[in-house]
Amino acid sequence: QVQVVESGGGLVQAGGSLRLSCTASGLTFDSYAMGWFRQVPGKEREGVSCISWSGDSTYYADSVKGRFTISRDNAKNTLYLQMNSLKPEDTAVYYCAVDKSRGQGWVLSGVCSEEGFGYWGQGTQVTVSS
Fold first, then answer.
1. pLDDT at position 104 over 90
2. β-pairing, 10-13 with 124-129?
């Protein structure tokens, strides 16, 4: 049984930083690409950042480029999202997800979208105050 658990969300002032973590169990972690997504009420879930199984390939949404960094530690079965220079518009529930396919996953299409991901965490709230 696959379990995905996020942590690290919270309340931060604009300009501040947070680091999200995600652990995934019940699968061979280093065989799957991973991703971070976020959702605000009334809007669709959007892809924030994705990473290949090896960490060699990454994707960032334009809105977070230069501010967020995705990384993974396969020895610890953990995915990270370092978020710097946070803005109020970054406020959302952030979700960690595991690619549906072993191997390259989203890298083959170059698209970091929720349709390609099959296992999801429960989400962690990030609130950025102005």
1. no
2. parallel
CA atoms within 13 A on the CB side of 92: 21
Contact 99, 113 (CB under 8 A): no
Q: Give pLDDT tens digits for 41-68.
A: 999 999 999 999 999 999 999 999 999 9
Tell me how far apart the alpha carbons of residues 5 and 21 are, in angstroms, rounded to a whole number: 8
- Tell whether the model's pLDDT for residue 88 goes beyond 90: yes
CA separation for the pair 23, 28 (Å, rounded) = 12
Burial of 97 (0-12, 13-18, 19+ CB in 10 A): buried
Residue type, 22: C
pLDDT, one tens digit per residue, over 24-35 is 999 999 999 999
CB-CB neighbours of 36 under 10 Å: 27
φ/ψ of 107, rounded to 5, equals -60, -35
Cβ neighbours, 10 Å, residue 54: 12
Rounded to whole angstroms, what are the CA distances from 83 to 1, 49, 57, 71? Answer: 30, 11, 18, 11
